[in-house]
Write a structure and sequence with these properties.
seven-stranded antiparallel beta sheet; binds magnesium ion; binds adenosine monophosphate
Amino acid sequence: MVGLFNETILQDHPLFHNHDSILVQEYASLGTPYLAEVPATPLRTQPCLVHLNTALANAVGLNAEQLASAQGVDVLSGNTQFPSYQSRASVYCGHQFGQFVPQLGDGRALLIAEVRKGKQYRQLQLKGAGPTPYSRHADGRAVLRSSIREYLASEAMHALGIATTRALSLTASADPVFRETTETAAVVCRVSESFMRFGHVEFFCYTNQLEALRNLLTWHIEQHHPEIDLGETETSFHAGLLQWLGAVIERTARMVAQWQAVGFCHGVMNTDNMSLLGLTIDYGPYGFVDGFDIDHICNHSDHQGRYSYRNQPRIAHWNLYALAQALSPFIPDSKETLQNLLDGFADVFHAEHSAQFASKLGLSQLQGDAVDTLIENTLKFMHQHTLDFTRFFRSISALNPKATVEENFAQWQHSPFFPLALGDEEQVTNARTWLSQWLALAQTTPLALEQWRSKLEKTNPAFVLRNHLLQNAIEQAQKGEFTEVNRLFIALSDPYNAEQMPGDYIAKPPEWAKSLVLSCSS
Ligand code: AMP
Ligand code: MG
């Protein structure tokens, strides 16, 4: 076993916890042509630790106290190598905004460790630790602004129960990084079972390295899908591959439905940003929608709205087509077989979307088509009046499924999340219509009011990581003050808890939030 040598040394390394975690080299041992060994480039000015995700450090099996030490910060910022592990970058390609780009890769992400703790396997990756062979003349760095955004969003999504890569640490230095203006460098250490993307499969298909692709797929499936048996024959390999693609389709469909249910737009759903494990990955110009607009575009560089809120499911499906296409050399009668599998996307997406929104509305999904109609009408009503997505759903727990429309309307106004503008007559009329439609279904709930409310409050977050809150934290951080990053981290870690939530985090966003512009620059 490749990992044995390291295991014996590193069990005693201070970065590891009490011998229950070990450093391994499983993915790393794949080597060429998948990975290029490349050291991180040290920052010139001493990096500081902006935030350490202590809970995640413990969960991975790392020693949080040691990670926060000067020696740990050096490892987390790429200034020194993780003990006995040569860092690596992987090659992939992808469809960016629908166009095929033949070579991408981790241009600024370096795998720095693989850690096993019992059955749990995690990879650690530094983002922004210098150029790699796949940097394409770019600097391999990430600015503080985008690093704060990735760090906080990963953990916000995790706390909302949505599959995502995670973030262990955020380190920053005064080294200049040149974008539209001069900014400063930061490094996020991210954690995931795998950082493999659809683009990894596309790369080895379109460079015609089919044997390499087959080996990579075999490794990935054996590592991450123990339920799939690829067997020893061609026939069993095809069957296993199809089963695996089915799993990727299912996970991706669920993930995007869950994004929709918290009003999340990814912003850059290129195939190189789509995880093979159905994890949310590569947080750039993402956004949680404030006032709901079904055509909301969060990325200013997305002129056509390809990745708008409405289009996200369709694009996820399109990306899965691109993945399936890259697998077709291995699949007999590929066109028909793959088409059948891909057709399954809509069913999984629809089922998850209905389940998510039914529970957000405090309804039982058993009510079938009627629930779907209500979900559609709810989103139309919210869109028509640009109602705040998070506040609207959270305010539903102030209602009472057994009371009348008028009683409910009065009750609703006492909620700190009340989403309506009472001066707008049309809105108020439509709200009463919506309430009566909602009551027709909600009143059949078998739950007692308190039970119903408490369930709903665990379903609709009081807090999401809105862009204007991030913007405040970023502006402070750029002046060397990280209080707001810390404050946001605490709030996003417990997003359903309205009682503990600062008032400015649950309030209606200020007017200036509407004029915030985010681009791919990072
Ligand atoms: P993204 O749009 O951020 O997902 O990046 C697309 C590709 O460009 C990925 O392969 C990144 O690793 C790479 N990339 C983005 N920014 C940089 C940078 N500053 N230096 C090197 N590579 C980069
Ligand atoms: Mg990317």
